[in-house]
Design goal:
The structure is a homodimer. Chain A contains eleven helices and 14 strands. The first copy, chain A, has helices at residues 27-30, 52-70, 91-96, 113-126, 141-148, 204-223, 239-252, 264-267, 271-274, 283-300, 317-321, and strands spanning 10-12, 17-25, 40-41, 80-85, 104-106, 133-139, 164-165, 168-175, 183-189, 232-235, 261-263, 280-281, 305-313, 328-337. A six-stranded mixed beta sheet of chain A has the order 1-9-14-13-10-11, with helices on both faces. Chain A has a six-stranded mixed beta sheet with strand order 3-2-8-6-4-5, sandwiched between helices. At the A-B interface, helix 3, strand 5, helix 4 and helix 11 of A face helix 3, strand 5, helix 4 and helix 11 of B.
Chain lengths: 339, 339
């Protein structure tokens, strides 16, 4: 068998391209600085559905259809879909993709889910197990607030380190046959769980930053690359607080990130104007920014090589009530524009 | 690249063996007809932990350590672990495997999680992406009851079709290098979501049976095998009600299952003596029966070839409250004793 192991955490991908990608976001995200980049911006939180959970499911279904349309294939030509979300029992994915008929793998990596899914989908195609595979992830501000925090009507005050859950979703369709000009997947780095004992569930960025550091550091070491080999290293949703921490941690190791590092949670909103405190979060944050902004920039040749790092906080309201700290995880994929 | 696609749903696995497996169950499962087969039977529901959720996490951690010990490797020699459970945000897996340092993929397939995990772990090894990989899944009667149903103290009456969530966990460690006498993974079949409109959340077996049928039928068709090619076709946790339905559906298609079909939910308890109504359920049901009973039987040569089919119901309490039906999914792996 072909050895595609570049290290304990990192696998090399030889021949997988992103055929197409699509992103759908909510109104607030459409009003943000990246608003014009997404395939679709919703007018309201409901999208003609009776509950926000059904809206989130519809978002998953529609974004996958959009990506398949752009790839010029039917859903019946996709061999596997890897999908997840933040809702209990991942009902955004389960109900959203229920009627697609695509062989389905449910995944849960909290806000790292999109990158976890892209990594697994890439391996399923590169290993020859499937001819094509898709990854989808979503979050919705209203479903997340009522599940994790307080009823929206309560109008709870948010702390300065709190983040705003993105209403958004993204989907990619992958297959083999990389040619010049394609966006290819080069490496997949699987993160380990890192828990530094942060117990403040309103400081997810701080809790997840050490995991992001660990995965970026491990990726560079195992691939023998330097940060400068990337035009962009982008984390999922550390927000302003977490992005500063991971920058400090990397710089302390001599890994220079100035001008090449950014965070999707910082990019998607205008933090001052849109009152989002530390920035955006949720599975839909990196999913929508990656599919709406970053992959298209690679496709156009504006940038050549990107390390996309999804970051997740593996807590639940129950674990916090039981006094537990917040375990973090980060999964990475290296993307490049093929020569 | 090597083509390992046997059909849209099914991938062929060329060289992956189960190095070792382990199972831990609760007291009630230890009192059942398979009680003597498991590696460890707990004396109570707590196992010296303050909450049942912490107990479930401990079960995941300890069963993986047991399997690694039996495989004579350290946790630091496992390249990937795929794990999940039924708890909101999969905290059984996240907290259970937090300190292992193993690159972690969280998965959610409801009670199909163990087979989903074995399939993904097998592909990661067979594709050369990892030298070794593990899969773990768990459930705990007390964590499931209070999350999904009513407080245990309430003593709610259960319906005749209801199942009893297994307190149990199982783990496998996989690597390449199949030799005569090893238990090898031959095929992985990924299920699609099937929803026939069952809305009774107390009849999971009935809701999942059509998905189990679909996956078994698809597996046999894509591999060009007959049911009789297996010594055992075993579903995850359809219980008595679901097992009868899937048997009827298969027999109506001319697929004969008499004497070779069983269900882990029917095997793990004495339904009459142990008052479990339709039988066992939960991620830990097929996980513990597969790792405690079925794989060891293959290892001893008592049986030669098994199709293990994990079945999951992708609902949540929220989806049921919103009037939704219960989507089912089933993932399968074909195991055999190598000549």
């Amino acid at each position: 068998m072909a050895c595609k192991r570049a290290g304990r955490h990192t696998s090399k991908i030889d021949d997988v391209k992103i055929c197409a990608e699509a992103a759908i976001v909510g109104k607030k995200e459409g009003d943000g600085p990246l608003g014009s980049c997404f395939d679709m911006v919703l007018n309201d939180d409901e999208w003609n559905e009776k509950t926000w959970e059904k809206t989130e499911s519809k978002m998953q279904r529609e974004v996958l259809k959009l990506a398949a349309d752009k790839a010029k294939i039917g859903l019946n030509e996709i061999d596997r879909v890897f999908s997840g979300d933040l809702l209990n029992q991942c009902i955004g994915a389960g109900f959203g993709l229920r009627d697609t008929g695509i062989p389905f793998y449910g995944i849960y990596g909290a806000c790292s889910t999109m990158i976890e899914g892209i990594g697994l989908a890439a391996m399923s195609v590169d290993g020859g197990f499937a001819d094509s595979a898709a990854a989808v992830a979503s979050s919705h501000f209203c479903t997340a607030e009522r599940q994790y925090r307080t009823p929206l009507e309560y109008g709870g005050q948010r702390t300065p380190t709190a983040q705003w859950t993105v209403t958004g979703t993204g989907a990619v369709v992958l297959n083999p046959g990389v040619r010049a000009g394609d966006v290819a997947i080069e490496y997949v780095t699987a993160g380990k769980i890192v828990d530094k004992g942060v117990k403040d569930a309103n400081n997810m960025g701080g809790a997840m930053a050490p995991a992001a550091y660990d995965t970026i550091y491990t990726h560079l070491k195992e691939t023998k690359r330097r940060a400068e080999d990337y035009d962009l290293i982008v984390t999922g949703d550390l927000g302003k607080v977490g992005a500063e921490i991971v920058t400090d941690m990397l710089n302390a190791d001599g890994i220079k990130t100035a001008e090449i590092y950014n965070d999707c949670g910082c990019m998607i909103y205008d933090a001052e104007e849109q009152d989002v405190h530390s920035g955006g979060s949720g599975c839909g944050c990196i999913a929508s920014v990656l599919c709406g902004v970053i992959i298209p920039r690679l496709r156009r040749g504006d940038i050549k090589r990107v390390l996309a790092v999804g970051t997740g906080a593996l807590l639940s309201p129950t674990s916090s009530l039981q006094g537990e700290s917040v375990p973090g995880i980060a999964h990475a994929v290296a993307l490049c524009r093929a020569d």
